[in-house]
Amino acid sequence: xxxxxxxxxxxxxxxxxxxxxxxxxxxxxxxxxxxxxxxxxxxxxxxxxxxxxxxxxxxxxxxxxxxxxxxxxxxxxxxxxxxxxxxxxxxxxxxxxxxxxxxxxxxxxxxxxxxxxxxxxxxxxxxxxxxxxxxxxxxxxxxxxxxxxxxxxxxxxxxxxxxxxxxxxxxxxxxxxxxxxxxxxxxxxxxxxxxxxxxxxxxxxxxxxxxxxxxxxxxxxxxxxxxxxxxxxxxxxxxxxxxxxxxxxxxxxxxxxxxxxxxxxxxxxxxxxxxxxxxxxxxxxxxxxxxxxxxxxxxxxxxxxxxxxxxxxxxxxxxxxxxxxxxxxxxxxxxxxxxxxxxxxxxxxxxxxxxxxxxxxxxxxxxxxxxxxxxxxxxxxxxxxxxxxxxxxxxxxxxxxxxxxxxxxxxxxxxxxxxxxxxxxxxxxxxxxxxxxxxxxxxxxxxxxxxxxxxxxxxxxxxxxxxxxxxxxxxxxxxxxxxxxxxxxxxxxxxxxxxxxxxxxxxxxxxxxxxxxxxxxxxxxxxxxxxxxxxxxxxxxxxxxxxxxxxxxxxxxxxxxxxxxxxxxxxxxxxxxxxxxxxxxxxxxxxxxxxxxxxxxxxxxxxxxxxxxxxxxxxxxxxxxxxxxxxxxxxxxxxxxxxxxxxxxxxxxxxxxxxxxxxxxxxxxxxxxxxxxxxxxxxxxxxxxxxxxxxxxxxxxxxxxxxxxxxxxxxxxxxxxxxxxxxxxxxxxxxxxxxxxxxxxxxxxxxxx
Length: 753
Ligand code: DGJ
What we know:
This protein is of the alpha+beta class. 21% of the residues lie in helices and 29% in strands. The longest helix is centred in the C-terminal third of the chain and has 23 residues, at 613-635.
C-alpha cells in the first residue's frame, strides 16, 4: 500500500520507494501539510511543528481567541484566499456576493487503485497498473466551494502527482481568478531555486539562485509554455549537487501560460505554488460546475540532482509518453529545412532523399513550404493543400518516390496558425484571435486561430487528417511559431473572455488527441519555433519535441544540458546540420555534431548532395554507431558529468539499466595547449565488475598523437586493450588524452566483461 490513512493520528501518508509525503487533518479540520522528504515510517510528523503566539497572526473562527494558531503560519495542502493567510495563495475566487474569500476544511477522503485521469488534459497514466490515487475533499462552509485534491502515487518512480478539481457547490455563480494545481509548504529549510530560462534558439539555460525573503516567480504570459521559461522548477539545499543532497522537482504537465511562485516568508518557511498563469484568467463556474487544473509531477531525491533527473526521465518515458513510439525505435530522419528553407521543388526533395538513403537515413521530413502559396513566411498558413507549383508531381507521387527509395515520409504542419494572405483567412477572417477594434499583433506575419472554437478545430482536423489518410505519411512535425496575444473570442460572452487562454490550450489538446488517436502509427514530434513548447503536456501526445532552432553543437551542449534536468534524451529532437552553422556561423567537426545529436532523437538537417565523399562515409559510420548505441542512449540512465558553466569541456554519460555498458561523451569547448588532462569520473557502474573499452572515437587522432609526442599515450589509446573495474572508473576516473582542434568530441564505449 502506497497510501495509508491512520485514523488515530488523522494522518494520510503517501510512500514511494524513497520518499514520503504526509498531511494531517487537524482538530479543526484544517488540512495541514506535515512532511515531504526521505521515506519515513508511519510517524505523525506534526510533532515537528510548534504553535505559539506569533504577534500579528490572526485567528480563524474555530480557534479564536487562542493566539497560538493561525492560518498565516500553518503549513497547508491547498490554501483558500482572503481569510488571514497572507502568503501566496493557491486560489483566488470571487463569490456570488462579490467577496474574495475561501476558507477550506477537510470533508472526506478516498483511496483508490490506479491513477486518476483529467478529462481533456494530458496527465500521467498507469498502463502497468502500479499507481494509487488519493482524493481529499475540502470545502468552504459558507460558499460550499469544494476542492478535490488529487494525488497519484507512482511508487517505483518516486513521483507523486497532484491536481485539483474545483467544484462550485453553491447556488450562485462564482469566478475563479486563480486556480493553481498545488501548493506545498516547507516550514524549515534553506533552498536554492533552480529553473530554466531562455530565448528563441537558446532554450532551457539552467540558473540556480539562493532564495531570499521574496516571492520568486517563474512563468509565461505568452499563452504557451514558452522559450523564455520552462514549466519545471527545482528546490535544492545549497549544498546539493549532482550526487548528494536533498532536492525537489515540480513539473507542470501543461502547454499554455503558467506560473510557479516560491515565497520565503517572515519565518523562513518556503511555499511553492504552481499552476495555470492567473494574469487575465477568470473562469466562471455556474452552480455545480467543475474546473480541473493541470497536473504537477512532484519528485524528491536525497541523492542529488542526478537521481531527481532519473526519476523524471523514467516517469516521462513510462507514464507520460504513450502509443507505439513510446518504446519502438524511432527512425533516423533527414529534414529539408536547413537544406532548402522555403526554396525547393519535388525534384530537390527526391534528390535529398536519394542521397540520404545511400547514407543509411531512414525517413525524409518535408518541412515548411509544401502547402498553400508559401514561398516565405508571409502567406499560406491555414491552406493545408499541396502547393503544386513546388510539388509538381503531387504529394502522393512525391511520397511514393521517397518510399521507393526505402525511406519513410514525414511532413511539417502548423495547424494552430493562419496567415492573412491565405484562402482560409479570406473565407473566415473572424477565425483569427483579434480584439474588437484593434489591429492584431502579427508575429512572423501570422495570426493565431481561435482554437477554443469547435468548428475551427473540426475544420483543421478535417484538413490535416485528409492529408494523413490520403498518403502513407509516417511522421508529423507539429510546429507553432509565435506567442499568443490579442485574446478575445467572438464565441465567448463578455464575462467569459478570461477563460479563452485556457480554452485555447484545451482546443489544441482536443486536436492533438483526435489526430494521434486516429493515426496511432504516425510518429508526432512537437515543435514551437524550436523548443518554445517543450513540456510534459506535449510529450503526452508526441514522444519527442524539437529541442531548439539552434543546431550549433556547442550551443546545443547548453540547451540539452538544461533540458536533461527534467526531460529524457528520448524526448529531445537533435540533428546534425551543416558547418559553418546557420545560426552561429561556427565551424565544427562532423564528429562533434554527430556526438551531440546522438544524445537526442538523432537525424540530419542539411543538403547531403553538398557533402564530400569523406563526409558521406563519416555519416554512414555515424548512423551505424547510433544504431549500435540506440538502446543505451534512449533507455539508459543519463548522467551529467560536468558543470557546463565552469569547465573547458562538457561530458555526459549513458549507462544501461543493467549496468553492463556505458557510453562516455565529451566535447572540448576550450582547447588548450599543454593542457591539464581531463580526468572524468564515471557514474552508475557496478563497482566490482570489469569494464573493457570496446569502442572509441576521437577527432583527428593522428594530429593529436603527433603533437603529444608520447609513445606511451599512443600505445594506450590506440592499441592496448583497456580494462578497468567499475570502482576504478568511478573513483579514479578515466583520463582522456590531450585532443587538439576546434571543439573535438570523444565517445568511449565501456562493456562489462
Ligand atoms: C520553426 C522550426 O523550429 C524549424 O525547424 C522549422 O520547421 C521552421 N519553423 C519552419 O517554419
